[in-house]
Amino acid sequence: MAKESHDLELLKSKGFLAQRQDDHFSMRLHTAAGNVSADHLRAMADAAEKFGDGYVHVTSRQGFEIPFVHLGDTEQASEYMTDVGIGPGASGKKVRAVVACQGNRVCKRGLIDCQDVCEKIDAMYFADPVPYKFKIAVTGCPASCLKVQENDFGIMGTMEPQFLEDNCAMCGLCEEACKVDAITITEGNLYLNRDKCILCGDCISACRKDAMQVADEGFTIFIGGKVGKRPRIGNRVLKTVDEAVVFDALEKTLNYYRENAHEGERLGDVIDRCGLEHYGETIKYSLLK
User: Within 10 A of 165 (CB to CB), how many other CB atoms are there?
Assistant: First the structure.
């Protein structure tokens, strides 16, 4: 029994997740930012037909799994994928594959290059050991298609507006563009409610008179989010910082998690137990209130 347990852990470390069917496994494959080349897609399809049940499962985190790989085929299947340049996915107590939207490379609303940031993070941290699991997401704007608030470390592109009254024609385009009612025009006066503003930049794009201009832009960071049986929305801790701060904060956050987590705790659990102030003091950043 001990040997069987050890073998299962070894298989898991190679990306094979036990199925409910005896001696069958789903082979998890490593992808970053949801991007897969056409050649790799063909290789996955070939592997699914050769080793699996003829189909590929797309996971909720932009990953791919080939189910119904028999125990006796796991080694050959792993070698096959490695030969075509696709490594195993991460499971267990590791930093998981980083997810990202297409950002400003493709999306007209994208404020940052999500793919570039994702690729850098994935190269630095993918499958690194952590106390339980650690999920990272990058999204291009406050629409948050990648649900960064539900990840241990979420990165969002943001743009903060500033209002130049002298340029304003009070046309109302910015008020119409704002979907969170942060802008109101009353009796010829425009009011920008910064507490309501989500930093999407839509008012800046809508303005035809340069009355709404960019005050600041960059990356906004959320930490401690998770879903599951005890979901938790991440805390917004830093706003419109530059890329260097993102990577510094991520490194410090991972170290904080490793040093303070109890068995089975996610980062959000640690923060709830130790306090957000303790986290801020440890990583040496002044956090948003």
Answer: 9
Helix axes 267-274, 243-260, angle to 10 degrees: 70
Query: Considering only CA atoms, which of 214, 198, 206 is closest in space to residue 169?
Result: 206
Q: What was the pLDDT predicted at 9?
A: 85
Confidence at residue 8, expressed as pLDDT on a 0 to 100 scale:
84
What per-residue confidence (pLDDT) applies to 288? Answer: 87
- List alpha helices for 151-226, DSSP H: 173-177, 202-206
- Let me know the angle formed at the C-alpha of 234 by 232 and 240, rounded to the nearest 5 degrees: 170
Q: Which residues pair with 134 in a beta bridge?
A: 95
Render the burial of 231-268: b for 16+ CB within 10 Å, e for the rest.
ebebbbbbbbbeeeebbebbeebbebbeebbeeebbbb
* CA proximity to 238, closest of 194, 276, 193: 276
> What CATH number was assigned to the domain covering residues 99-283?
3.30.413.10
Strand order in the sheet with 136-139: 99-100, 136-139, 153-163, 212-223, 235-241
The CA distance from 25 to 41, in Å, is 20
Query: Judging by beta carbons within 10 Å of its beta carbon (0-12, 13-18, 19+), is residue 95 exposed, middle or buried?
Result: buried
| Closest residue by Cα to residue 114 from 106, 200, 217 | 106
Q: The domain at 2-83 falls in which architecture? A: 2-Layer Sandwich (3.30)
Residues in the chain with pLDDT < 70?
A: 1-6
- Nearest CA to 28 out of 54, 61, 66, 81 is that of 66
Which pair of structure tokens corresponds to residue 178?
């704002």
CA distance 146 to 287: 23
- Structural domain spans, the chain: 2-83, 99-283
pLDDT per residue as tens digits for the range 90-133: 988 999 999 999 999 999 999 999 999 999 999 999 999 999 99
